[in-house]
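Please review the protein record below. Tell me whether the encoded fold seems credible here:
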Amino acid sequence: MLLNRDPPYKRKLDYFGVMMSYMLGVGNVVRFSQLCHKHGGVAFFIPYILMLMLEGTPLLCLEMAVGQRFGKKSLVQAWGDLKPNLSGLGLAAIIENTIVLFYYNVLVTWCLYYFVQSLRGTLIWEPCGITSSVQGNQTSQIVETECAKAGAEKYFWYRKSLNISDDINSSSGVNMFMYLFVFMAWTSAWLLSMRGIRRSSKLMWLILVLIVVEFVIFFFFAVDLKGWTYGLSLLFSFDRLDTLKSIDVWLDAAGQIFYSMGIGYGSNILFSSGNNHDNNLFSDAIVCSLANSGTSIWASIIMFSFFGYRAHYKMSTC
């Protein structure tokens, strides 16, 4: 895993664009909001911010320093130059990336599939299919049983999209349509790796701008829905501060920091290897940490606004 194939960054903004495109993702939107809901909303912010200051920013600064000073070699050699006994960290990062890549590319596959399906004019999950049954002179319409029990959304996902088997011992063969999107995800990752990350800084900035625009659109759309304040009242409620007594909330906060900031994977070392040796990495670490955590909190506000609308809709239709 060589780190010095790409040329140095032409601008400091290119470095920030690459770093933020790497950090911002599913962990900021789905996982952070899920943990906030699990651990009492704003109560989760307390251990999260503490872990950000105690482990997130310092470790990010360490990885930036290793990449900036020793990142012209392989990942194993970079840690080895810092201290020979740390060479195993580079090897562990390579093994970790290999394992994570297999399941994370599946998430990318699902996102690609959902994006293509969303281009249709109607909802991607349509109402359950209805079949006509003729008995004598009477014609009756029967809703598909499995779809009626599971719901149109779950039926679309598990049956039409994933085409899951009835149990672990049976198989319905390879889902060729989904396999096509798996191939697209792996091909995209390969092409980006071959081109080089720093050579693709313009593409990274395009991705980052699209993410910000998408967040802005979702935010204004969410606050225009009925019941969105119910969700925010749940998010910013101080009624569950007792969850701080549990060790689980602190472990989840620490895990979220590692997951969303990409610490331990070696990517921060790779991206920082294109900086000059006299670059002010302390300010870079602080800016990236605040931008990443601020995006997570912003995403949780959007998600909880949708939760409030969903609760309001269910209450009004009961």
Observations:
- The chain is about 65% helix and 5% strand.
